[in-house]
Amino acid sequence: MSAQYEVVIGLEVHAELKTDTKIFCSCPTEFGGEENTHVCPVCLGLPGVLPVLNKKVLEYAVRAGLALNCEIASFSKFDRKNYFYPDLPKAYQISQYDLPICKKGYLEIEVNGRKKTIGITRVHMEEDAGKLVHGGATIATSRYSLVDYNRTGVPLIEIVSEPDMRSAEEARAYMEKLKAILEYTGVSDVRMEQGSLRCDANISLRPMGAKEFGTKTEIKNLNSFRALQKAIEYEIERQRDILEEGGKIIQETRSWDEGKGVTVSLRSKEEAHDYRYFPDPDLVPVVIDPQWVQEIRDSLPELPDAKRERLVQEMGLSEYDAGIITGSRALADFFDQVVAEYNEPKTVANWIMGEFLRLLNANNLEVAESKVKPRSLAALLKAQAEGTISGKMAKTVFEEMFETGKEPETIIKEKGMVQISDEGALAAVVEKVIAANPQSVEDYKAGKEKAIGFLVGQVMKETKGQANPGLVNKLLKDKLG
Ligand SMILES: Nc1ncnc2c1ncn2[C@@H]1O[C@H](COP(=O)(O)OP(=O)(O)OP(=O)(O)O)[C@@H](O)[C@H]1O
Ligand SMILES: [Mg+2]
Ligand SMILES: [Mg+2]
């Protein structure tokens, strides 16, 4: 009985730009700091001051736009978006409305092996708002609210997608790819938890085959990829339940409640703001020299998709491994640096995908926080390749490197871990084990290949795991065969 619905999702993403100073004044953009110390008459909106555009902001916006395959407008302008709320002292936000700096871009995602292009409607520049700190648990129960204007005027780009996504997984994949591209181009810190990358998700459902979009809701307060995915999944079910009961979706802004795992209404369309956009008379239009755009284009680094392709084609990595490694620039750089010292890309990829990511995740650390440096991992892999230590020892050494930041050579020495690869030194132990296990020797000679495994194990036991197992195997076969 129940109808089939198609999910429609579009994302609005705000990224703080990594400039030293704010968008229209020279206050620092540094995160944190004592409240209301990174402020001046311009970002406080005092009368009689004039904003001046930070050229670096424009450069970063163009850089992001080019990386997202956008057209760069040779003429754009700033507009005032009026709203009255204490996080913005001027009672308007300087933003861009009808003539944004970038438009008509796209990026590519891949979900379950299927590639898909997601359109980007526009990328525009705007200023961030301040932070409210409420006296009570919620704004409704607070007797007072405090405001910190340090963040006011920190430069943002807003990246608006087309309503091209059809599932929570696609939305997450889009966000992950967008984050990676912004990280690669170096325009933003892209930390969702710290709020330098923020995402609002617009969601609607429509009967399968319908031409018109359904009524959408907009979800805010999504502070991680997981929150984004969970919130969308929840919202899809909430809307589906309403539609299946014959109800109507109310166009509204909702907030994701991470603790309860639900979305709750913030404000409906009736309460929606009338922003009364108009051109900001304090700022001149932005006119860009195509030559400068070309210079920025030429300075773009290799982007995630191209890099992934290269790791697959030239280095023989699997699509999956290459996707994970290039998913973050920090990890991709780490990989490149290890390979520069130890040119066995597949082995390096295995270690990064296995031990390195496992320990980072278990300790909740970022690549940048790792005590293991690329050069040290390369040294460890060399020691293993040369037979100084076994694969099993290498894992133990790596764990200690990860914990202490010590060099592999130091740990190998301290633990006396050096693998015994000297035939002379092993011969005596091999003799001893053969003498002590006549039954296994007989089994082996009678054709039971497996018996050799037991004998190798005995030699490993005698040498406390330090014997080179390959060599032991060979010595045993020589002696018995
Ligand atoms: N019916 C729909 N279902 C799902 N998403 C939609 C639908 N219609 C539009 N969208 C998406 O909603 C987003 C609208 O963002 P946009 O910034 O243009 O408008 P806004 O939300 O009204 O403005 P703002 O929140 O910045 O004041 C876009 O990402 C768009 O793709
Ligand atoms: Mg918007
Ligand atoms: Mg919106």
Automatic annotation (TrEMBL):
Domain of life: Bacteria
Molecular function per GO: ATP binding; glutaminyl-tRNA synthase (glutamine-hydrolyzing) activity; transferase activity
Known catalytic reactions: L-aspartyl-tRNA(Asn) + L-glutamine + ATP + H2O = L-asparaginyl-tRNA(Asn) + L-glutamate + ADP + phosphate + 2 H(+); L-glutamyl-tRNA(Gln) + L-glutamine + ATP + H2O = L-glutaminyl-tRNA(Gln) + L-glutamate + ADP + phosphate + H(+)
Family: Belongs to the GatB/GatE family. GatB subfamily.
Protein keywords: ATP-binding, Ligase, Nucleotide-binding, Protein biosynthesis, Transferase
Stored SMART domains: GatB_Yqey
Function: Allows the formation of correctly charged Asn-tRNA(Asn) or Gln-tRNA(Gln) through the transamidation of misacylated Asp-tRNA(Asn) or Glu-tRNA(Gln) in organisms which lack either or both of asparaginyl-tRNA or glutaminyl-tRNA synthetases. The reaction takes place in the presence of glutamine and ATP through an activated phospho-Asp-tRNA(Asn) or phospho-Glu-tRNA(Gln).
Subunit structure: Heterotrimer of A, B and C subunits.
Name this polypeptide is given: Aspartyl/glutamyl-tRNA(Asn/Gln) amidotransferase subunit B
Record-annotated Asn/Gln amidotransferase domain positions: 333-480
HAMAP family assigned: GatB
Catalytic class of the enzyme: ligase
Record-listed E.C. numbers: 6.3.5.-
GO biological process: glutaminyl-tRNAGln biosynthesis via transamidation; translation
UniProt cross-references to InterPro entries, sorted A to Z: Asn/Gln-tRNA_amidoTrfase_suB/E (IPR017959), Asn/Gln-tRNA_Trfase_suB/E_cat (IPR006075), Asn/Gln_amidotransferase (IPR018027), Asn/Gln_tRNA_amidoTrase-B-like (IPR003789), GatB (IPR004413), GatB_C_1 (IPR042114), GatB_Yqey_C_2 (IPR023168), Gln-tRNA_amidoTrfase_suB_CS (IPR017958)
